[in-house]
Amino acid sequence: MSQPQPIDVPQQVEQNPQTGEKPEDVRGKSQGQLVRQRFFGNTGAVVSLIVLLFIVVLSVTSLGVGPIPGWWKWNPDATGTVLNGGRPTLSLLPPSLGEHPFGQDNLGRDLFAMAMQGTQYSLVVMIVVGLIAGLVGTVVGGLSGYFRGWTEAVLMRLTDVIIIIPLVILAALLGRLAISWVRAHDLPTFATVIALGLLIGLASWPPLARLVRGEFLTLREREFVDAARLAGASSGRIIFKHILPNTVGVITVNITLLMSSAILLETALSYLGLGIQAPDWSLGRLISENQTAFATRPWLFWWPGVFIVAIALTINFIGDGLRDAFDPRQRKFNPKRARETGERTDQYPDALTASEPGTKPAVNAGAEAGTRGDTGRDGR
């Protein structure tokens, strides 16, 4: 009787086909180390983070913060003589900022100083919106998803009421109220920026709350939550110790998306005259004030637009990098990785399924069956 032919089976799968990671890349590392490794392995996210940090450092150091002065010599409201028709003096070859790198408006005000002040205010609004919307959305979604019953009914009906109102209209109304309140109490401009971000954040949390609620509904039925409940853990401990850490990825990614939307929303409100008011500048107000000069002096329109697009894009790319870092199975299609995985799948079609819990590769099972059959024949 012919002997069974040995089956050439790889000792182990070179990498996980779902995440593209090799075993040695993840062995012995904590969840935080894996997230950091995946994030810094994403070229787009890292480049976006560098660009965003550059914009933050440039805007903060050029004009300074509070009593701390900056290195730029012009103030946003300082008028002067219009030089060379107000054209930008920025030069790449040779590198030089010149007297007015972004140009001047018709009153001789320096556009670079105005753009840096607008960038500072836009970044502050973005951060405040992210904090407020993230906090409120997480609390509302977590409580409604865990406790269910009347708690879920009340909180979700409140969410539905807010979410059906167009965000621009709601934010414009709240922004106008914030500006009126700050002016009535004669508070400084920074209070207006904080109040605007606070009220925009209070209008932006419902989408995050619904996502967090869905995550809590799923996680509260998992075995580790049942085990903690049977061990006598309180609801607070279960939420903060067992469920909330497993939703950090969803919360973090969606907060970055909310921050990106906040930049565009603040720009729209300032463009409509419902955001930052004179004599202070925001990126949206710069575009609104200089829109009539687009045909004759387009640089007055370009630079604020460049900073708006750069901030929004970098935040979105950072959010994509965080999403891939927390859940690498959601990575976008990679033709090279798909082609490599496809070649291994053609050679060993069942070996790649071994990454699923409780699943044994069919080729290994076949090898074991062949071995058992061969032993039986030898025994007979």
Automatic annotation (TrEMBL):
Q: Does the keyword Electron transport apply?
A: no
Q: What are the alphabetically sorted keywords of the record?
A: Cell membrane, Membrane, Transmembrane, Transmembrane helix, Transport
Q: Where is this region: Disordered?
A: 1-29, 329-380
Describe the location of the ABC transmembrane type-1 domain by residue ranges.
Answer: 119-319
Q: Which domain of life is it from?
A: Bacteria
The protein's location, in the record's own words, is: Cell membrane
TM segment ranges: 39-65, 121-146, 158-179, 191-212, 243-265, 300-322
Q: Which SUPFAM superfamilies match?
A: MetI-like (SSF161098)
Q: Name one GO biological process term.
A: transmembrane transport
| PANTHER family recorded | D,D-DIPEPTIDE TRANSPORT SYSTEM PERMEASE PROTEIN DDPC-RELATED, OLIGOPEPTIDE TRANSPORT SYSTEM PERMEASE PROTEIN APPC
The record's family statement is:
Belongs to the binding-protein-dependent transport system permease family.
**Protein name, entry field:** Peptide/nickel transport system permease protein
Name the source organism. Kocuria marina subsp. indica
